[in-house]
Amino acid sequence: DSPAGDPANWTVQERQCGFATELDKQVGPGDHFFGLASVKAAHATPAILNTGAGLKAVYLNGKRIYTNTGWTGWHAFKEQIPVSLVEGENKLVIESGTAFFLSITDAQGKEVVAMAPVYPADIPDVMHDGTGRTSLGWLDRHKKQMDLARSGEVQVYFAGDSITDGWQTSGQAAWKKYFEPLKPGNFGIYGEEAQHVAWRLHNGGLDGVKAKVVMLLIATNNLGAHRPCRPKKSPAVSCCASRNSVITSPASRCWSWASFPAAKAPLTTSAAGPPR
Questions:
Q1: How far is 73 from 52, CA to CA, in rounded Å?
Q2: DSSP secondary structure string for all residues of 123-183
Q3: Is 201 exposed, middle or buried (0-12, 13-18, 19+ CB in 10 A)?
Q4: Distance (Å, whole) CA 197 – CA 183
Q5: Could you read off the pLDDT of 226-275 as tens digits, one per residue?
């Protein structure tokens, strides 16, 4: 009967022990989920992958190493799968139902590595349409914006979602009065999330740019879509920050602004992702 956030609550205890329970409530509606983790090993080492609950499949460094052939009960360590971790970063991808168990140990059951969650927005990605395909309208706008970037005339580079995109419509008068004298370029696209901006920056969005300032405002839509983002560690921010290699002008600066409030009260951990 404990509240959901109470450490005494059963679901909280299970998550701390390795179970991710009630994903349909923690992440969003559905019965099929994907997860990604970065497993770092100090050196190449053998390990045991322990599975349980509704885990459907596991991929390690691009290779499928586990497939669940049927439900065998609610318990951990259903199967113990020998794996080899490479030195450095190992990419672990899972498919799961609404609950799963997964841990990595040595043969004696001692944890050998800690899994650091990789947020969906950490991975640059294209925007998808309702069918799961790349949005052609979004891609067309990106291509047109690349032409503007390559003109070499942009001095203040605005990147973001509809908040930035809106300067070209409802905010046009203010844009013309305050920003136009600064030779700006509007590279905002309605509906974007952090990973979409990151993809564009890494795929031609900064080609030929010699801007003095890059203004980045992104991540509001990640909250609504339940795809958490860590703004300070976002690849979009990292791409801008690497000004000597990515932005051709060594004098460029990237300003990453905090997202505007999107609700009357702070969002819960389950909606906004783990604290950052």
A1: 8
A2: S----B-TTSSB-HHHHHHHHHHHHHHHTS--SEEEEESHHHHGGGTTTHHHIIIIIGGG-
A3: buried
A4: 21
A5: 566 655 555 444 444 443 333 444 456 777 777 776 666 655 433 333 33
Residue type, position 133, single letter:
R
Q: How far is CA 49 from CA 44, 58, 113, 179, in A?
A: 15, 9, 11, 55
Helix (H) or strand (E) holding 13: helix 10-17
Taking the C-alpha atoms of residue 197 and residue 125, their distance in angstroms, rounded to an integer, is 8
Read off the pTM. Answer: 0.54
Whether 32 and 90 have beta carbons less than 8 Å apart is answered as: no
The pairing of strands 63-67 and 45-60 is: antiparallel
First to last CA, the chain: 29
